[in-house]
Amino acid sequence: MNEKSFVEETQDFSKNLDIGIVKKFVVFNEISSTNVKAKELAQKGEPEGTIVLSEIQKNGRGRFDRIWESPEGGLYFSIILRPTCKSDKTTLLPLLAALSVCKTIKSVCDIPVAIKWPNDVHIGGKKVCGILLESESSKDGLGYVVLGMGINLNIDIDVFSKDFVATSISHEIGIKLDYYGFLKKLLLNLDYYYRLFKEEKYNNILSEWKKNSDTIGKRVCINTSSEKIEGKAFDVDQSGFLIIETDSSEYKRITSGDCFYIE
Ligand code: BTN
Fold first, then answer.
1. If you placed Cys at 243, which of 2, 12, 160, 234 could pair as Cys (CB 3.0 to 4.6 Å)?
2. Ligand 1 atom nearest to CA at 70
3. Rounded to whole angstroms, how far apart are CA atoms 146 and 133?
4. Hey, which of 61, 101, 116, 129 would you mutate to test ligand 1's pocket, going by the most ligand atoms within 8 Å of its Cβ?
5. Do residues 41 and 14 make contact, with C-beta atoms less than 8 angstroms apart?
6. Rounded Cα–Cα distance for residues 261 and 258 (Å)
């Protein structure tokens, strides 16, 4: 008997899936980038809850125009969302996604996983998940958000290039995890936190994010597009932006940037 392809397996998986946030799967054995495809579909009017999933990505995209290495064994998907909240709250969505991934990893294995502001999930300083939010707003309120998530699930880390400081869950725990079991738990977590988001329970999300992050209280250096800011990570505000206390006791609000921990 022929083995099922990734697309067929995923179709089987999605048949009996009853998770509010999931409306539809669009599945590929291989794609350039699930985010690019999801944006295309969102522009054509595909509804909230459409998920683009691929076994591998040939041109996975990371934050700040970086490449996201996407070999077989990783979990790569993008979900279309059409939130109706105030625009200053959409920046909470990647934090909510990172929280969902972090909780999912904690529920399947006992490893010291944490979120680094804003939305990197890491194990021992090595990245295990990255999240890319891309959005388009429009005057008629029919804008969209594409939330792309790349999780290094069952990957032999030797396949990563040298400058990609990453690890995989299978490398850390020494066994491979069930792909669809993990995906289902993750979608359930995403559904839970997105529901809180729609109910405007932003404080609940932020307090859980803080419990699962190791950033607050650390000395950090943030590379923004225009400057480097060093200081103590003091807090995150209601939009998920980082408040830094600098050495001159100034408080700076950082909306976006790469965060590095300083020993
Ligand atoms: C980062 O730089 O940390 C963000 C990485 C985001 C990668 C995911 S994989 C699925 C989706 N498709 C993409 O091209 N990128 C995101």
1. 234
2. 9
3. 6
4. 61
5. no
6. 10
Tokens of 178: 């069930």
Contact 95, 166 (CB under 8 A): no
CA distances from 81 to 137, 147, 198 (A): 12, 8, 11
Tell me: the pLDDT tens digits for 41-86?
Answer: 999 999 999 999 999 999 999 999 999 999 999 999 999 999 988 7
DSSP annotation of 51: E
In the structure encoding, which two tokens stand for residue 91, read together?
């920046």
Q: Which two tokens stand for residue 221?
A: 């250096």
Q: CB–CB of 258/242 below 8 Å?
A: no
- List domains and CATH numbers for the chain: 6-212 (3.30.930.10), 219-261 (2.30.30.100)
3-state secondary structure of 221: strand
Does the predicted model carry a pTM greater than 0.70?
A: yes
The ligand 1 atom at the shortest distance from the C-alpha of residue 61 is 14
